[in-house]
Design a protein that fits this description.
With about 325 residues, the protein is an all-beta fold. The protein is about 0% helix and about 55% strand. The protein starts with a strand and ends with a strand.
Length: about 325
């Protein structure tokens, strides 16, 4: 079901969103897609004119045509038992790589025909127990395995036959959830350990812990995004966005952080320019944080709406933010 609720022309369609501005940037609700295929919508990735959304509770990857942001529409989807608990997603070329939390798999989906996505291959292994966040670098996928307390490296040089290349287990990875790559390092948000962990991946077959940091502000560390010398971490437990200096991966340090009721349940994080965009799943918001001074991040604006119920994943494309809302069963389009 598609509903457009943004009314810039005053034509009688009521805008029921509530935008809160602390600074000058106030996101506005443009449109959304709601469909049972999006049940438990967790994460979203953008490639060209399409948004790819994981349905955790529908066991699907859903393709949404966003060529007209005011009128997004489901283009296609794929359901399969290997996608049970579909969670994290990353796109590389003609393939989407999905972490499936319940089936304990990395699943490769062929998206060359967005109307007819198909399973290309998958890999199951005990080290992938609770597969969540996914990041791609070259011929490797890096998966945060929540239940296994691991970062797992999967060789994807043959998408039809992905294979586990290596993995690292450590107590500092307890509840590994989000992952992002920068150079020879993977940065993992560890939910139960309340940590950001730097993993050396220069040898994909033998990843090793380079360094880690814990702090009360990292309570429930989850989503991770990298920009330059900084990692931006959504911390669910404290309702915080935390800025970690990663210029020396062996000696990570807190650069700054911000907490605010609008950040309650801070989860997914995306970076664009001087702003971090945070999906807050408890406050049901997209929150815009000014990170031009990493030591002093500040709330620039935020928006809530019933369709943002359980806001989680965030992706930015042009002047629009795309948010997957798990409880709302929606993909939401906001103008920035």
């Amino acid at each position: 079901m598609l509903k457009s609720v943004y009314d810039p022309d005053g034509d009688g369609v009521v805008d029921v969103s509530r935008s809160m501005g602390y600074g000058t940037l106030r996101p506005a609700l443009v449109s959304y897609v709601a469909d049972r295929k999006l049940n438990g919508a967790r994460n979203v990735a953008i490639s060209g004119n399409y948004a790819y959304v994981t349905g955790h509770d529908s066991d699907r990857l859903v393709v949404v045509n966003i060529s007209d942001p005011a009128n997004p529409a489901i283009e296609g989807s794929v359901y399969d038992a290997v996608l049970d608990g579909a969670e994290g997603i990353a796109i590389s070329g003609n393939y989407a790589y999905v972490g499936a939390e319940i089936s304990d798999r990395l699943v490769v989906v062929n998206i060359s025909d967005p109307a007819n996505p198909s399973i290309e291959g998958s890999v199951y292994d005990a080290v992938l127990d609770g597969a969540k966040g996914v990041a791609i670098s070259g011929n490797y996928a890096y998966i945060a395995a929540y239940n296994a307390d691991r970062l797992v490296v999967v060789n994807i040089s043959d998408p039809a036959n992905p294979a586990v290349e290596g993995s690292i287990y450590d107590a500092v990875l307890n509840g590994a959830r989000g992952v992002a790559i920068s150079g020879n390092y993977a940065y993992v948000g560890a939910y139960f350990a309340d940590r950001l962990v730097a993993v050396n991946i220069s040898d994909p077959a033998n990843p090793s812990i380079e360094g880690s940091i814990t702090d009360p502000v990292l309570d429930g560390a989850n989503g991770v995004a990298i920009s330059g010398n900084y990692a931006y971490v959504g911390a669910i437990g404290g309702g915080e966005l935390v800025v970690v200096n990663i210029s020396d991966p062996a000696n990570l340090s807190i650069e700054g952080s911000i907490t605010d009721p609008v950040l309650s349940g801070a989860s997914g994080v995306a970076i664009s320019g001087n702003y971090a965009y945070v999906g807050a799943e408890i406050s049901d918001r997209l929150v815009v944080v000014n990170i031009s001074d990493p030591a002093n991040p500040s709330i620039e604006g935020s928006i809530t709406d019933p369709v943002l119920d359980g806001a989680n994943g965030v992706a930015i494309s042009g002047n629009y933010a795309y948010i997957s809302a798990r409880a709302g069963k929606t993909l939401v389009v906001l103008s920035l």
